[in-house]
Amino acid sequence: YHVSVVGINLSTEHIKYANNQLAKNPDLPVTYVYGDFTEIKKCNMKFDRIVSVGAYEHFNNRYDDFYHTVYDNLKDDGIVL
Fold it and tell me: Closest Cα partner for 65 from 46, 47, 43, 39?
């Protein structure tokens, strides 16, 4: 599909599992980052797509932080899901 992916997760076990799976297919353009959604800033890039899967309900009172982070790191014609 000609994409590169950055996955961000707060679970060390999820990251460990994902990296083990990636080791089985090292040609996949996937990077996993440990941390919360603010870690996206460290990627220092604009994204075409940003997808939050199963995380939004855990942001509690950080919704403004989430939306500002997404806005700052999404291309002008990008899509958020």
Answer: 39
Q: pLDDT by residue (tens digit) across 34-53? A: 998 888 888 888 999 999 99
- Residue 12 structure tokens: 């060390």
3-class SS of residue 9: strand
Residue 7's nearest CA partner among 46, 15, 38 is: 15
Contact 38, 72 (CB under 8 A): no
How high is the pLDDT of residue 65?
93
Determine the Cα–Cα distance for residues 64 and 67; give it in Å rounded to an integer: 5
DSSP per-residue codes, the chain: ----EEEEES-HHHHHHHHHHHHTSTTS-EEEEES-GGGGGGG-S-EEEE---S-GGG-TT-HHHHHHHHHHHEEEEEEE-
